[in-house]
Amino acid sequence: MDGYKQLYSDYVKTISDVKIPESTLRDLYRANLIQKKMYEKVTADITPIQEQVWARHILVATEDEAKAVLDRLNKGESWNAIAAEVSTDTANKDNGGDLGWFPRGVMETAFEDAAFSMKVGEISQPIKSDSGYHIIQLVDHEQERPLTASMLDQLKQSTWTKWLDGIKANKKIETFDLWKQLVPTEPTVPAS
User: Fold this and answer.
1) Range of the structural domain that residue 15 is part of
2) Residue 45: C-alpha distances to residues 42, 91, 116, 144 (Å)
3) How does pLDDT run along the chain (192 residues), one tens digit per residue?
4) What pTM was computed for the model?
């Protein structure tokens, strides 16, 4: 306890040297703790086992391009070759547009609705999203599949962000640029 008190005292002195009062530090810690508790409450129902699909896609800019991709696929051309050639999703175009496994809540709604409604092996019609037009192929679908740790974190973060955006949409938020008054116009270098 003595060590903690000494560390705390040293830290308070450090921030007071730059004119940050201890009350501001305490307010920041309090706000951080409240945010963590709210995050835990909002994401409490997210289970580590979820319905998931494994899909791959080819993303293009226009509906006409998507129809041309679909036509090429229907004529028997290789999915992987077409994805490498035309997909604008540079993160996965060279591995056939493979998106791996994902649950609901991490992709755009139109994309998810299409992927989760398809049969294994089925190829979709063009699906419009904010990114462009997708041709999706469902590789597999499981009702109960464990999430990876990173996917669980991503799903929790996505749920938190949607909840927070919903709260903000119903509030009038004012932003004050008070910090601009505290920023020096010329740098100061302490004397050594």
Assistant:
1) 1-42
2) 8, 31, 21, 15
3) 999 999 988 888 888 777 888 888 889 999 999 999 999 999 999 999 999 999 999 999 999 999 999 999 999 999 999 999 999 999 999 999 999 999 998 899 999 999 999 999 999 999 999 999 999 999 999 999 999 999 999 999 999 999 999 999 988 888 888 777 777 777 667 766
4) 0.72
- Looking at the chain, how many residues does it have? 192
Write down the residue that tokens 């040297």 correspond to.
17
Residue 89 CB contacts under 8 Å (≥ 6 apart), including other chains: 57, 58, 59, 97, 131
Any idea what the CATH number is for the domain that residue 121 is in?
3.10.50.40
Both tokens assigned to 71 = 């036509």
Same domain, yes or no: 141 and 56: yes
